[in-house]
Design brief:
Elements: E1 2-6, H1 15-24, E2 29-33, H2 45-55, E3 58-65, H3 75-89, E4 93-96, H4 107-122, E5 127-130, H5 143-152, E6 159-164, H6 165-170, E7 181-186, H7 215-224, E8 230-233, H8 238-241, H9 246-263
Parallel strand pairs: 1-2, 1-8, 2-3, 3-4, 4-5, 5-6, 6-7, 7-8
Length: 264
């Protein structure tokens, strides 16, 4: 398995320290964010590229353009700015998340956004990683809908999916799209009392034996069906982000997943 680390796992670390942590964990792939922490606003793309080169890591993605499926207001301008930054810093892709506030967004709007975004990505040699969010309030919950929209937009050569194990479980989606998957986000939920439709980012911890999201079966099925890309840790819970020894905790989770998948 190829593991990667999303900066959300250790948001208090500087870019240099985050990259160094990834390398100590034998991970040469990382994801950089524009929210927590907001690297785009605090580091130039040249500095980010230089730090990645020194550490020997590859920047998989900038996470994330939001809400990509509502192509209005300042979104086009922000999309160009993020794509320019991603290219300049050496990132391979731009994660794209849908509106997530309970407002419905029609298929036509989704297809239009994909059509408008495609040339921005193509001109910069970037992949658009479409990430459906499984929350009940999300305007794009399932990967099946995303695939249909990408095909309707003629974006097969531009877009891939993010399979997020948390959102896959919340959406109740059973179909996998390994051929469409460009990145997998992994996190677990261990709280035994929270109902699935009440799960939030704050519940997302590192994957261990108490996981309720069926991470191991999801990962196993993706691997068995031909997915060869990275599995990126994306825990949002403060209890993870405030761990005194995140390296040890991440290593323990990696070891658990690798063992569990091998015997599943």
């Amino acid at each position: 398995m190829k593991f990667a680390i999303n900066h959300i796992a250790v948001p208090e670390l500087s870019v240099d320290d985050f990259f160094a942590l990834a390398r100590r964990l034998c991970c040469d792939k990382v994801e950089v964010r524009n929210d927590m922490p907001d690297v785009i606003s605090t580091a130039t793309p040249d500095d980010l590229r230089a730090a990645a080169d020194v550490a020997g890591v590859e920047i998989l993605s900038i996470n994330a353009l939001y809400p990509f499926n509502v192509w209005s207001g300042d979104l086009p301008e922000r999309a160009v700015g993020m794509a320019d930054y991603a290219k300049a810093c050496g990132a391979k892709a731009l994660v794209m998340c849908p509106l997530n506030d309970g407002t419905p967004v029609g298929t036509d709007s989704l297809v239009t956004a994909l059509k408008e975004m495609a040339p921005i990505l193509e001109e910069r040699g970037l992949t658009g990683l479409v990430e459906p969010l499984g929350f009940p309030v999300s305007s794009l919950r399932r990967k099946a809908e995303a695939v249909k929209a990408i095909e309707a937009a003629g974006g097969e050569g531009v877009y891939k999916l993010v399979h997020d194990t948390f959102h896959h479980h919340l959406a109740g989606e059973t179909e996998l799209f390994p051929d469409w998957t460009g990145l997998v986000h992994i996190s677990g939920v261990a709280d035994p009392d929270v109902a699935v439709d009440q799960m939030l980012d704050d519940h997302r911890v590192l994957v261990d034996v108490q996981d309720r999201l069926a991470n191991v079966p999801q990962i196993k099925m993706l691997l068995d069906r031909g997915y060869t890309g990275p599995f990126s840790f994306e825990p949002f819970a403060r209890e993870v982000q405030e761990l005194p020894n995140p390296q040890a905790a991440l290593k323990e989770s990696m070891d658990y997943i690798a063992r569990a998948v091998s015997v599943a």
